[in-house]
Amino acid sequence: MTYTVTAYCDGCKYTDCVEVCPVEAFHEGPTMLYINPETCIDCDVCVATCPVEAIYPEDQVPEKWADYTRINAEECEKYPTISVQVDPLPDAKTLEELQAAEGG
Ligand code: SF4
Ligand code: F3S
Predict the structure, then answer these.
(1) Is 12 a pocket residue for ligand 2 (Cβ < 6 Å)?
(2) pLDDT at residue 103, as a whole number
(3) Is the pTM of this model over 0.85?
(4) Considering the domain boundaries, does residue 64 fall inside one?
(5) Which of 34, 42, 74, 95 is deepest in the core (most CB within 10 A)?
(6) pLDDT (tens digit, 9 = 90+) per residue, 17-30?
């Protein structure tokens, strides 16, 4: 299995998640992070750290974001790993704002 970063990370990049990952599975793309399925050990600790609830176990990714598991696997290869928290993107939204923008 692996864990998957989904849509709400895109445009936010809070990066709380990278600090707790024991194996440096996160890679930093320009607008979001990606988990490397080859590295992730399914420890689950990152899920609770994300302020916008963007991370899911692969088998619990909501249907509307099903493509993200493949996207994580492909995009992680293009970018360096990240293990130290950095400032979020300037337009980062709250979970409430993201849900409202999505219509629910
Ligand atoms: Fe890292 Fe664990 Fe999250 Fe996988 S589940 S990305 S190993 S913190
Ligand atoms: Fe993205 Fe959440 Fe981590 S917004 S960078 S998955 S803390």
Answers:
(1) yes
(2) 80
(3) yes
(4) yes
(5) 34
(6) 999 999 999 999 99
Looking at the domain assignment, is residue 100 inside a domain? no
The total domain count for the chain is 1
HSE of 69, CA atoms in CB hemisphere, 13 A? 15
Q: Pocket of ligand 1, candidates 46, 68, 76: which has the most ligand atoms within 8 Å of its Cβ, to mutate?
A: 46
Ligand 1 neighbour 33 (Cβ under 6 A): no
* Cα–Cα distances in angstroms (integers) from residue 33 to residues 10, 15, 67, 81, 103, in the given order: 8, 8, 15, 9, 24
Residue 96 lies in a domain: no
Q: CA 59 to CA 36: how far, in whole Å?
A: 16
CATH for 15:
3.30.70.20
85 in any annotated domain: yes
| Structural domain range at position 59 | 3-90
Per-residue confidence (pLDDT) for residue 23, from 0 to 100: 98
- In the reported structure, the alpha carbon of residue 34 is separated from the centroid of ligand 2 by a whole-number distance in angstroms of 9
The radius of gyration of the chain's CA atoms, rounded to the nearest angstrom, is: 12
